[in-house]
Structures are given as structure tokens and as C-alpha cells.
tRNA-specific 2-thiouridylase MnmA
Amino acid sequence: MRILAAMSGGVDSAVAAARAVEAGHDVVGVHLALSRAGGTLRTGSRGCCTIEDAMDARRAADRLGIPFYVWDFSERFRDDVIDDFVAEYRAGRTPNPCMRCNEKIKFAALLERAIELGFDAVCTGHYATLVDGPDGRELHRASDEAKDQSYVLGVLTAEQLAHTYFPLGSTPSKALVRAEAAARGLTVAQKPDSHDICFIPDGDTRGWLADRVGAQAGAIVDRSGAVVGSHEGAHAYTVGQRRGLKLGVPASDGKPRFVLEVRPVSNTVVVGPKEALATAEIAGERYTWAGRAPASDAFDCDVQIRAHAEPVPARAAFVGGALTVTPAVPFDGVAPGQTAVLYDGTRVIGQFTIDRTVSAVPVTA
């Protein structure tokens, strides 16, 4: 096959590309430039798309003896990831920019161009497994549970999965990948993993958002609507947050309070007891299927609401056009804007963006 290897400059994508070459594929490496202003992205090991990362990717490609290119996707990244991130926070939701990057950039924009250029598939260093089932290609969890990235890949569609290649999915551990990189003479063998949001240079998400959303003072209220404090910008708060609330009125039971809801229209933050974070139901209208769609409008599944959360057994059903999920055990601290990924065992069924949540604790409690 003709393989386009997306090379971030990290050890995983370098080893994935090496395995594609070793498997006999015709491989070309590409690094995605996601910002035209280098200073707007993290430096060193904390990002995944800096000038330093591009140089690391080029050295790896040279070591593998494959052609290498840098493609400018900065405009698409700004429109589909950064602007979406700001819009979601402005609407009082908590987005996952890495999820959106996978959906809109790595497996939409990149894959579209790859197909146009005659490539058969895009190869990445994600830890997930592809299985050719009776109804087409299926996305499954990686063999290494600690590194499994099937959650952030839950946005992939059947068509995208048909042109995707994940060489690391069956590798038992990240340590083995690093050892393999060292044995292959790849200089990124011990490079630290990237983390945090790549387009926020100093890690100050609150300050970065304040510059773009605007900081407007407002009230912090309890579940009854009584004002218990004030804030300098609702965008700085997310469901489940405890620190930094600075409440002027203590709770009657003396227990700490947590953010339960952010209401952008009224610029209000709602707080309450920890037990009120228990969520009995989630729903969303923006959903996709990773392969075949469920055969029924109601089905049992496991649901994961964060990248490293434990999956929870649940019942999913379509109610009024929305995919609604009722967990067997309440979720803890779910925020609108998060992504819920549905599983059948190890297989990813699909995903949806959470638009609505229902607390398991009545307001009168």
C-alpha cells in the first residue's frame, strides 16, 4: 500500500512509520504545521507541532530513508479547532480540542488530501486496534490499556477507518516502543510525551480564554438561585471544579461546594454539594458511528466520558432525535461539550457530543 505517515516528531509516530516501512509499504512522511506563528505553540516536549517537533520528525524520516514533507494546515486548524474551542467555552461547554483535531485535521483534512494524492491510508502512532469484521472495519481498544487511545479516535467514521493504519495497537507497552525506537537508531526514543493544549503557549487556559471570550463579572449561585459569591468570567469555570471559587456565603452544612453548571446567557455559575455532580442521564444530537450503526434504536453498551475514565455500563436510546444514555451507575461531574464514546466490549460503536445532563440528585436535596 501507499502509506502517508503523519509524523508529529514524537516516538510513537516515528516507530509507526518505521513499522509501515518494514511491512513493505511505500511510505511518505508528513508533518503538519498547525501555526504560522511559532511562538503561539508550546516549545520543547510539551507540544506536538512546534518547529523542534518538525525537525525531530525530519530526522526520523531521514533515518528511515523515506521522503518527508511539511504541510501547512494552520488555517484549517484555526477554523476547526481553535475557533471551535473558543465558541464552545463561550457557549458554556467544555470541549476536547484533541478530539476535534483528530476529527477535523488528522482524519479529515489530512486523509482527504492523502486520498487525492493517491495514498491508500494514513498511518499514525495512536494506540488503537483495527479489525476487519463481517460488516467492515472496526475500531477496538489497544492491547495496552494504560495507553489506549480509542476514546479520542471515537470520532472516526467507517469511511475514515477504511483508510487508516495503526501499527502500534497490538504493542503491549510504551516501554517496548521506546526500546524499539532506540534499537532503530531513532533520536526521539526517550523524548517525553506531549501533553496539555498545544495552542496555548504558557498553559494559562483561563487567561488565554479571557483574551478571546472577554472577562465579565457575574454571580455564583447555589441550586436554589441564592447568590453565594461572584466571578470575573464564567468561561474560567468548568463542571466539577472546586478550587478558586472564593464563595462569600458558606454552605449550611459546612461542606465544600463544586461547580455544577455554567450558564453563559446569564453569565452565572451554579455551585452545590459534591453528590450533586452525580449524573443520571446524558444526551446529544451530534453523533457519529465508528463503522456499522447499531441495529436497534435502543441498545446496551459501555460509555466512557473522558480519555482516561473507566467505562460505565449503560443503556442508549434515541429520544426525540437525541442519543440519550442512562448509566447503570451515575457518572461523576459531566459537562456539556464533553464527548461520550460508546463501546461494545473493546469495539468502539460511536460517539456523541454531550448537550444535556440530568443530575441524579433532586434540586430540593
Summary: The chain has three domains: 2-183, 215-272, 277-359.
